[in-house]
Hints:
heterodimer, A: alpha+beta, Aldehyde Oxidoreductase, domain 3, 3-stranded antiparallel beta sheet, 2 helices, B: alpha+beta, CATH 2.40.240.10, RNA Polymerase Alpha Subunit, Chain A, domain 2, 2 domains, extended
Amino acid sequence: MALMPKRVKWRKSQRGKLRGYALRGNTVAFGEYGLQCLGTGWITGRQIEAGRVAANHFLHREGKVYVRIFPHKPVSAKPLETRMGKGKGDPEFWVACVKEGTVLYEIAGVEEEVARSALARVSHKMPFRCRFVRRRHGL
Amino acid sequence: MEMLTLKAEPRTPGGTRTARALREKGSLPAIIYGHHEPPEPVTLHEHEVEVAIGHGARTLQVELNGEVKQYLIKEVQYDHLGLAPIHIDLARVDMHERVRVKVAIELRGVPKGVAEGGILEQLLGEVEVECRVTDIPETLRPVVTDMELGHVLCVKDVQLPPGVVAVTPPEDRVAVVKALVEAPEAAAPAVEGEAAAAEPERIGRVRPEEPAEDEGQKAKKKE
């Protein structure tokens, strides 16, 4: 089942806008290697889950995968062949809002080459271009 | 530690546009402060700073107005992708002064516990230490080959060079060898309809569902 929050204050939300770059969550914080997003937009809960499964499947229970994003935003849609009006549609899926620079996944406990291959597979599940990043030691 | 001399030029403090214009020319905005003297905004050569940081320098020899002085690198700000530095903070220091700096930890070796099916997890990336400016270590490299499953490496277990004292609490955990816990897999993939129907619980006061007649009532009110 796709990711979604357990409890919410409001069922539906407005679309909002995504401007600028990621000024937080743009460094590798938990693991040793990470996958950084090079686009700005929405990533659905299903895509996030697909990325996690792809990484874990490649790693064969080796290492640890951290998912740094979560789909907090509900997206509503109207059923097919419905006339306009009659209020906002029902929530259809959940998305995470990401900005350019956000670190989406991190991997710890494996060699760089293995992490690179695993994250390359994850990047194919993402709706944006991504790049492989290493943790910065020191300044 | 290698000392590099960089040429700095004084700059008039400005906003984002001024800083951006400087960066386009290959300069790096910087600020020098400390020792109860007024702060001095300066510009450095971006490439020279990158090379110095790449070599693990913690202090910079800067030539400003014909004077060569040693400054401590307090902070380096990077762009949103973490590729290029966009600003640097330099602090005035004496060579015999004791300073507090954060030093990165790089774990060395593969723990015994990893062979037993565990995973080495680094919980702390940096340790704050107090030492003389000349004694600042580039990184701390504790050897973790003897760590078994369930073993924890604390700050007190990390060997520090002579003259260096840890400021971070000694009981803080640096790394741990954990047993891998398998994530519970979903028994069966959810049906499309089910997934869409499942909705999260509402927090707080939830309005009772409006009756079907509401639409008609609204229309009447409009009239």
